[in-house]
Amino acid sequence: MKKVIFPSLLLAAALSACSSDSDEPRIDPGIEPAYPTTSDISLSRAEQFANDAINSFGFSFFAKVANDNEIAAKNPNFAVSPVSLALGLSIYANTTGDDDAATIQRAFSCEDLSCLNSLSKKLMQFLPDKSNKCELALANSVWHRPDYTPCGDYRERMNFGFFAEISALDFSSENAGAVINDWCSRNTKGLINHIVDNGPISLCELVFANALYFKSNWGIKFDKSLTDDCDFNAATGKKNVKMMHVTTPLEYYKGAGFEAVKVPYEGTYEMVVMLPDENTVLTDFINSVSYDDISRAINSTCNTTVALSMPRFESSLDDMKCNNILAALGVSLAHPALDGFFGYSHSSQGVVIKHFSKVMVDEVGTEAAAVTAGIMFGFIGEGGEPSSVDFTLDRPFIYLIRNTKTGSIIMMGQYTQPQ
After folding, report:
1. pTM of structure
2. Per-residue pLDDT at 225
3. Would residue 150 count as lying in a domain?
4. Confidence of residue 56 (pLDDT cuts 50, 70, 90)
5. Could you give the number of structural domains in the chain?
């Protein structure tokens, strides 16, 4: 049997998995979508191009975060949600003026706002899953000053395209922040419950948010009796982790500089784990690959028996301000406005985009959540087909969680440092 050791590079769609003493299914009654969903999806050529661009932009965003020393020091194990980020920015594109909207359209390879909106609507209706052992929920909301009135076109796009709640909120009131935080908590089942201060939000004129929640059991079985203490080779030295083990047929890829394996969930989602070659610094690996490299790996796997060893882990990202990272990717948001909201020209003092995530992984499955929020302020494989491999995640790695039908990445992250 060939020995393959993988540095833990987790590239996931926003997910968290809770430890449990029972191997029984643990999907609780979930967040019921307040809008019609569908089990079928058909994307036009332009929409498919934009969907791929969202994944590509998501990886570029992830790579910028991984290379930010300040963020990495605070959150060595972090995840971002390309889907949540795209939906949040799409709401802003509809709210603001032509200049900022155009930068977002270019980032997602959309010629016009209608393509971005039609794709957003289809993802909102297709990605949610509420079955016995899998749950994916999406929600959007907009809060505005009580003396502001959205135009009919904006209300229609938010209500029927993004299925968003639109509410007037007195941002100077003592419970203004609590209203927004409570909404986030309800739509992430408590995983993300604080995105603004609970009190007044000074000078705020509009807040928008997307929330994503995911919870699913594995489609393979990790026997808890096999979980043991193992060394994890972090950059700062060896750390002890609880290592889960299973030997089973899985989709596997071996390419130049890394290996990858697909770990299925029950339903239409899977985790793709990528392990760089030994003695590779994780950020060096991230900087050496593109989303196209990752996409080729995902589409070039072969089925083989894999002895998979994966640590229980948690990843989180708390209150990350995204404006500088977005600007580095060509989305400068330099002309904040409420033109789309009002239906006429109305400049705004500024907008701050924030991103939050939490992912938990154990023997039963994964639970994860992400929130993307905007606060607007006023003027006031190439290696053949091996018969079997050992895939041991005993060093830094990246992971992603994706829908197997659309390829949409709901979470992408890295695991580098056991806590």
Report:
1. 0.90
2. 96
3. yes
4. very high
5. 2
What is the radius of gyration, based on Cα positions, of the chain?
Answer: 21
Backbone angles phi, psi at 366, to 5 degrees: -135, 140
Is 405 in the same domain as 283? yes
Domain boundaries, position 186: 45-217+314-377
* DSSP line for 7-42: EEEB--BS------S--S----S----SS---S---
Dist CA 314 CA 359 (whole Å): 5
Query: Where do we find the tokens 């060509």?
Result: 330
For 223-349, list the strands marked E by DSSP: 228-234, 237-255, 258-264, 269-276, 302-311, 313-321
In the predicted structure, residue 5 carries a pLDDT above the cut 50:
no
Of 409, 320, 394, nearest to 75 by C-alpha is: 320
Residue among 407, 412, 405 at smallest CA distance from 370: 412
Question: Which domain CATH number covers 111?
Answer: 3.30.497.10
d(CA 335, CA 365): 43
Structure tokens that stand for 313 in this block: 């882990």
Q: What is the pLDDT at residue 172?
A: 92
Cα–Cα distance, 73 to 63 (Å, whole number): 15
In a domain, 130, yes or no: yes
Residues 153 and 57 in one domain: yes
103 lies in a domain?
Answer: yes
Helix or strand holding residue 80 (H, E): strand 78-80
Angle (CA) 347 349 354, round 5°:
115
- State the CATH number of the domain containing residue 400: 2.30.39.10
Are both 231 and 290 inside the same structural domain? yes
> Any idea how long the chain is?
419
pLDDT recorded at residue 31: 62
Summarised one tens digit per residue, pLDDT across range 156-208 is: 999 999 999 999 999 999 999 999 999 999 999 999 999 998 888 878 999 99
Q: Read out DSSP for 196-255?
A: S-SS--TTEEEEEEEEEEEEEEBSS---GGG-EEEEEEETTEEEEEEEEEEEEEEEEEEE
Residue with tokens 């920015």: 89
For residues 95 and 335, give the distance between their C-alpha atoms in angstroms, rounded to a whole number.
12
> Which residues, 6+ apart, have CB-to-CB distance to 248 below 8 Å?
220, 305, 306, 308
Does 38 reside within a domain?
Answer: no
Report yes or no: 374 and 345 within 8 Å, Cβ to Cβ: no
Same domain, 123 and 200: yes
192 and 227 inside one domain: no
